[in-house]
Amino acid sequence: MKGSEVGKAFSAGNLQKTFDQHQAQLPEVAQVVGQAVQSYSAEALRQLFAQQAQEAAQKAQETARQTTQAPTRQQTPDREQSGGLSL
Fold first, then answer.
1. Number of continuous H segments (helices) and E segments (strands) in the chain
2. Which 3 state secondary structure label does DSSP give 60?
3. Which pLDDT score is estimated for 62?
4. How far is CA 41 from the centre of its chain?
5. Apex CA 62: angle with CA 61 and CA 64, to 5°?
6. How far is 4 from 48, CA to CA, in rounded Å?
7. Rounded to whole angstroms, what are the CA distances from 75 to 54, 72, 78, 83, 86?
């Protein structure tokens, strides 16, 4: 065998060995990634719900504030009381 052929065989053998090692680890990697995605998704949902709850509370407070600060409408007197026309 020439030197270049030995190098190719060695490289191909190393590549196959490395591939086999990584392939053997795939189920573990998939499990870790799956757990990370679930954890991230759950945290993202918690943050989203907390943000929405906070926004809803702020809107409710603003509505309550506007309701209590709204000018009261004065009652207009009846026409009879104001000397208007009566039937």
1. 1, 0
2. helix
3. 92
4. 8
5. 65
6. 59
7. 38, 9, 9, 16, 19
Residues 22, 15 contacting (CB under 8 angstroms): no
d(CA 53, CA 65): 18
pLDDT at 51 over 90: yes
**pLDDT attached to residue 11:** 77
Q: What is the DSSP letter of 26?
A: H
Q: b/e for 57-68, b at 16 or more Cβ within 10 A?
A: eeeeeeeeeeee
Return the percent helix, strand and coil in the chain, to nearest 5: 75, 0, 25
Q: Which DSSP helix (H) or strand (E) runs through 13?
A: helix 3-69
> Residue 26 to residues 31, 79, 80: CA-CA distances in angstroms?
8, 87, 90
In the chain, the amino acid numbered 14 is N
Report how far residue 47's alpha carbon sits from residue 38's, in angstroms, rounded to the nearest whole number: 14
